[in-house]
Structure formats: structure tokens, C-alpha cells
User: Fold this.
Amino acid sequence: MLGQHGRGLTRALFTVPARLLARAGVTPNMLTVAGTVATIAVAVLTLPQGHFILGPVLLALVLIGDSFDGILARLTGTSSAFGAFLDSTMDRLADGAVFGSLAVWAALHMEPGTLRTWTVAVAVCVVVLAAAVPYARARAESVGATAAVGIAERTDRLVLAAVGVLAVGPGAPQWVLTAALGVIALASFITVVQRIMAARAQLLHTEPGERP
Assistant:
């Protein structure tokens, strides 16, 4: 949801810097790959060690820079199917690094017990669901349907994770992060179901011989 409403704002803020990058010869695909490498590096080097203020701040800066690739592609007229494929693939790697790093932190730094078990389990579920959400949309589009629906897009998931991490960093109870990850997991699962149902409705409508 946040991603849908924030695109106009990002275009307004980043169009001028994107023009400067275009003049410097930077391509959208360069930004996509560089942003992913930077996200993975920051996530792996900060979150498992418990740097819960520095990590989110650096990740926010990297993700803001990563949003330039789409704007740059539109400005330069270089949007392409490969660029969209590359961007989506790189996003999955970056998301896996962020949520996987949180799972590692929980396993290494939380006291043994139920809370740690739940935190690790939910974080791993989020890694899987964060990949399943875009996969459901991509698979629907590959069979002729559209599934751009759902309550938890990538931006929503990352913002919720950042809120949980930034709360625990200054001293909030660790269960706050567990709760944030739980909300992400539930919202992601609901989004997958929403996309399945959207694709089902469209495909059954176009294939009258099929029955529910």
C-alpha cells in the first residue's frame, strides 16, 4: 500500500538527481545491481551484530538510492523487460538478506526460550513469504492474469521491519520485533491469498469450461 501511494512523491523528489545520473552515464541496471549489493552488505554487516539504529538508517539511505533506477529508466527511455526482471530478482535477494539477517540476530543474541524460537521461525517465514508475494503476481501475469493487489507490498514489509528494529535498538522489549515480524508474515500471507483469488477470478472468467 505504501509503495502505491509513495511513487508520485519519489518521482517528484528524485527526478532532478536522476537527470544528473543520466548525464554522468549511469544506467538503471547499474543502479539496480549496486543498490542490491549495498543492501546485502549493510544488512549482513549490521543487523546480525545488533546494530539496530545504524543498520536501519543505512538501509533507508540505500533503499532511497535504489528507487532511482525506475525513475532513471523512464527519463532515459531505457525501460525494458530485462530491466524489470533484473530489478525484481535483485529485490528478492535484498529482502532475503534483510530478513535472514534478523533471523540470525535472533538466533545469536536472544535468550534461549520460546520468544527466540518464535522470532527465528517467524523471520524465516517472512523470508519465504517476501519471495512468494511477488512470485504470485509474476506467475499470474505469465498465464494472462493480473494480480497487482494486496495489503503488503515490499515497501510495507520493509517499513514495518524498520519500525520493529528501531524500537528494539534503543531498548524496547525484544518481543516488539517479534510482533513486527509476525505482522509482516500475516500481511504477506494475506497478500498471497489475495493475489491467488484475483488470478483465479480472472482465469475462471476467461475459461468458461472451468468450474470452481
About this structure: The chain is about 80% helix and 0% strand. Residues 11 and 108 are 40 Å apart (CA to CA).
